[in-house]
Write a structure and sequence with these properties.
Elements lengths: L16 E10 L6 E5 L12 E6 L13 E11 L2 E6 L5 H5 L4 E6 L13 H4 L3 E4 L6 E10 L7 E6 L7 E6 L5 E5 L4 E4 L5 H6 L1
Parallel strand pairs: 7-12
Antiparallel strand pairs: 1-2, 1-6, 2-5, 3-4, 3-6, 4-5, 7-8, 8-9, 9-10, 11-12
């Protein structure tokens, strides 16, 4: 995603953003907001005081796009599967209501560095999943999303091309034991999948 901002030190107009949270509603009476967590590292909010608020077009289609707004995070805490955020200058319910529908973001360049065999969920989406367990690589399909709620191992939601009118979706565990190679530049994820796993999940 991209956005533009004005002012010294602001990201440039072609700067890509990483979404950390999506503001859903007000929380409390002092300007706090409740947000869905969109990051793999919610604990890193403790290290991030300078954030950006951006209205997500899909959240408020009737509203014009907003320029990214720099904000300072004062306090935060986890709450009922989400996170409560309190920003500087937002000190009332009415002020907090004006933030509903905004995304909380940072520039992509400020993401937490990952190990070579790790990837952000946002980077996996759109990659082609290839099974390299057999004698020849087999394209399984395109990764559409990642389900992190089903258990300790995330599930790749893969769209498998079909000759029928509708494509099929299958779930593939994103287990390190299966991971062979990540080539995000080429939008390719190679995994050595157990025999029969794809057919089992398709049925």
């Amino acid at each position: 995603m991209s956005g533009n901002a004005s002012g010294p030190g602001s990201p440039t107009t072609d700067q890509q953003w990483v979404w950390l949270a999506h503001i859903r509603r007000t929380q409390g009476r002092k300007g706090e907001v409740f947000a869905d967590i969109l990051t793999d590292f919610p604990d890193k909010f403790a290290d991030r005081r300078n954030l950006w608020l951006i209205r997500e077009p899909s959240a408020s289609p009737s509203q014009p796009p907003s320029e990214p707004r720099s904000v300072k995070l004062l306090h935060h805490w986890m709450h009922k599967g989400g996170i409560v955020l309190h920003f500087s200058g937002i000190d009332s319910i009415s002020a907090a209501e004006g933030l509903i529908g905004f995304g909380v973001a940072i520039p992509r360049t400020e993401r937490v560095p990952l190990a070579a065999d790790e990837a952000y969920i946002s980077d996996l989406i759109g990659c082609v999943l290839v099974d390299v367990a057999g004698p020849e690589p087999t394209v399984i399909g395109e990764i559409q999303d990642v389900d992190t709620t089903a258990g300790p191992t995330p599930l790749l939601i893969v769209r498998r091309p079909s000759t029928q009118t509708k494509d099929r979706e299958i779930l593939i565990p994103y287990a390190k034991a299966y991971l062979h190679r990540l080539d995000l530049a080429a939008r390719r994820v190679e995994m050595a999948l157990p025999e029969g796993l794809v057919d089992l999940n398709e049925s």
